[in-house]
Request: fold
Amino acid sequence: MDKIIIILERRLFSAIGHERTQINAINELLGNKKSIVIASEGININDMPFENKVIPKLPKLNLVDEGKETIEYIQESGDILIKLLNQKELKKIQKIIIPSARRVEIALITYLYNEKKIPLNLKTVLRIHDIVFLENLPKATLKIFSQLVNQGLIKLFSETEELSKKIEHSFKIKSSGSLIFPVSVPYKINIKSKKEITDEIFIGCLGGPRRSKGMFTIPKIIKNLRMYFQKNKEDFRVTFIIQMSKNKKKRSILFKINEYLSRHISNSVNVKYIYGTEDSNEFISLLKQVDIFLLPYSKIQYKYCGSGFITDAIFLEKPIITVKDMSMQNLRKFKNAISADNVEGYSNAIIRISKNYKYYVKNSKLAKKYLKNNIKKSFNKIL
Reply:
């Protein structure tokens, strides 16, 4: 491409999460590895899993006060951004993409357009993950932002269809729909061979160990499953792959104690603990070991927010178990997933999929075809 694409992503300080991997996704799907990434000060630019030039010049993040940024901080961030853009010559910039916009990104891009510091022919693609980032905006800023979106200067996307509908209903803002980025598993991943389920099923409970991700529910599911195996003879056993954090020692200890207390019930349900991975390739190898992805998440927090593990599972053609009424329902309508709303329901879903694994894998391939087409259509809207 002759013109430059600017990607604004402040939160590149952590190797965990989607902020870094989505840069790779944008590169892959737009066919442009020369996009320039603008980030916050204090990051190690040599530690990025992509080749893009990174300019860490935005004011340093204060995670304690995130979501409460002052007008002065927002305007300072906006002025620094426009200075960087001017250095690249605005007329050569094709588009600004903000893949994970929070309150401050929404406010600063609104400030720049409203003050006419960005030319009207330079469009911004902005994607949000949570309704709270709009709810936390000052009313005056929200009003101006809504006008900019409805005028077409900003293309507003969300992570899920549910969130897009919520935005349109609650704020009367025109949404361009959902824009899904591959997270850990690349769009063009090659599934060389499909594992034949024999005598062991691996259940993946990955990601940060948080209450909202079912940290205190999973030991109960394990216990319920052990009670099932105590009463029923099956030709397979189950192993949970649980990802823990070395920085969250208290949570890890509590989880292990709760899990350990039910080990005596059955030796057909085991647990394998993982403490992070070295790089993205190692994490993908871990994902490939999983046969069923278990997401017993908070239905309140994930009613509109999506999960990268749903797209990871679909790209790998693996079945999924989620909480009932979780978002991304359009990706789970192919009978590639089961929803549950209690411990016994999750346990039953594991048994059901395990006994009919080939059926759910076959349906996961249909979901994968739909997902890839959905992503292509969304990226055509960006272009």
About this structure: Residues 357-382 form the longest helix (26 residues). The chain has twelve helices and twelve strands. The chain has a mean pLDDT of 90.
